[in-house]
Amino acid sequence: MKSISLAEHSVREVNQLLHDQARELTEGQWRITEPDGRHALACGLDQELHVVIDGHAGYYCAGMNQKATVEVNGTVGVGVAENMMSGRVHVHGNASQSAGATAHGGLLVIDGNASARCGISMKGVDIVVGGNVGHMSAFMAQAGRLVVCGDAGGALGDSIYEARLYVRGSVESLGADCIEKEMREEHISELRALLAQAGMETNPAEFRRYGSARQLYNFQVDNADGG
Amino acid sequence: MDDHRERRGLRESATFDRLTIHEIQRAADTGIYDIRGFGAKRKVPHFDDLLFLGASVSRYPLEGYREKCGTDVVLGDRFASKPLHLDIPVTIAGMSFGSLSANAKEALGRGASAVGTSTTTGDGGMTDEERGQSRTLVYQYLPSRYGMNPVHLRMADAIEVVLGQGAKPGGGGMLMGQKISDRVAHMRTLPKGIDQRSACRHPDWTGPDDLAIKIEELREITDWEKPVFIKIGASRPYYDVKLAVKAGADAVVLDGMQGGTAATQEVFIEHVGIPTLAAIPQAVQALQEMGMHRKVQLIVSGGIRNGADVAKAMALGADAVSIGTAALIALGCNHPRWEADYEKIGSAAGFYDDYHAGQDPAGISTQDPELSSRLDPELAGRRLANFLRVITLEAQTIARACGKSHLHNLEPEDLVAINMEAAAMARVPLAGTAWIPGQ
Q1: Among A59, A167, A219, B109, which lies 20 to 30 A Cα-Cα from A28?
Q2: What CATH class is the domain A2-199?
Q3: What is the domain range of residue B186?
Q4: CB-nearest partner of A63 from B177, B190, B217
Q5: Is A11 in Cβ contact with B217 (below 8 Å)?
Q6: Alpha-carbon distance A75 to A120, whole Å?
Q7: Collapsed DSSP state (helix, strand, coil) of residue B141
Q8: Does any domain span residue B319?
Q9: The domain spanning residue B370 has which CATH number?
Q10: Could you give the ipTM of this predicted complex?
Q11: Each residue's pLDDT tens digit, B84-131
């Protein structure tokens, strides 16, 4: 494992080293120390690396990740793993707003709480949150699965498309066009697998499922004079 | 309109004219607002209200066909290690695959590449047809992030962070179900056939300070190679341009209210935003006050139709312009050869604006395979290249007449306005006077 300190190197230098691995893999295991809340850490990775960030990261940590596994031993700022395509990002702490925003694939695990807009416009990613999520989570969520082991804030799943939401605790309120749906065996089964992947020891039978009522998919036209 | 009604003593209301009455009746019939494409159709002060002061005794002109008048432009050299070098300062504005057919996108790429300029993606991501034919391709980064892929980000030549567009500042994209084909649905991760309404705000940043961090991320992901543009719809350009520069933009794209759209509410198109003419001087003032004019390039769009418009925008301080509607018309949109088909769908050549409906007889704003096949991308690309050459030559003609050896040497001093509104907005004197209203 190669260790590199952000007290001695710039974010640019560190990211360039990691990006260079996509062209020629010379080191697969990386440890980044003293991040001190810096932004855009380990973003744009495109190689099967294992990157551990020891400490708190700022905005867009592991943004647009492809293939890599990124672990953060601390909290993360806005937009962790935003637009992730594949790979795995695991936050051993809390996350700020817009965690996993617009992500197309991969797995995002947040051991603690995630703030507002967790999974906003998610497009296929799986997100597992050990604690609570804030308001407007899964806003316009298109695809993928959001698992919340704690409580969800207001307007959950507002204007949701085809994403599936699983919440174990309370939901403050559901957003427009989001409804509770039947929890069938196939859902318990996929939830069990997701929780296992995330390393969460929680009973899938304790969750409730939410999704789209599909009432906002098309404009409603009256055609009053159409006969 | 003389249809003998006035002779019969029938008086049309100026307030409730026939178009207004028709719209009230349409709204009552359907219960939904009118959605259409194209741009603002109302008359607003525009470049036609400005005139150039050609050289005579006090200035001397350049020879029309012999003396050089440069047209090249570099975009994005503030921070990016690989700025764009374009041969002409007329670029192709962002238009999505989805709103346009794949053939239309390919044609735009062919035409632009033939004359050494760029095209721009749109909502929904990058297609192979577009990347394959566009020598220089700008990748839009939009609130919806439909089809947003870091691989494409790296394949692009520049990144355009879209905050808004002139047709609908403050509004998100729209694509009606008729155009959500299997391919479009797959690219956008949406169910087929839905009426797609994109977000109007970015999902992971709010405000200019966050935007600066977002731009930093985009630069990190692309190793600081790509220029980052910020596109704004013209509403408060003085403030928005300042904030865009502060956030770290390499270039600002400023889209006036006449800018086109694939699908937006009519009420939005006609009633939100300010004219291009009014927006440019505010943007230039902002750049000048920050000492960034010509360092952060200003790309202006919204109603650019000919070389005179190009020259006037640049004289007011733009570094380049961008065309959308005019490019589609050059490809074949609204062409009289399809008159019979326009009539069948209740429109007419020269009036067609139902881009959202997906029934475009010219095969441009459609996903229908049969209609799309009507557009030959090679031929349409040649038409666009011809048009781009013509408007560049026109702009050069005017610049030489003003004694300028490069289009960038045009300046506000070369212009006058023919009415007070235009003089006030463009901040140039009323013709024959030294009076600039408000100054």
Answers
A1: A59
A2: mainly beta
A3: 35-331+362-426
A4: B217
A5: no
A6: 19
A7: strand
A8: yes
A9: 3.20.20.70
A10: 0.96
A11: 999 999 999 999 999 999 999 999 999 999 999 999 999 889 999 889
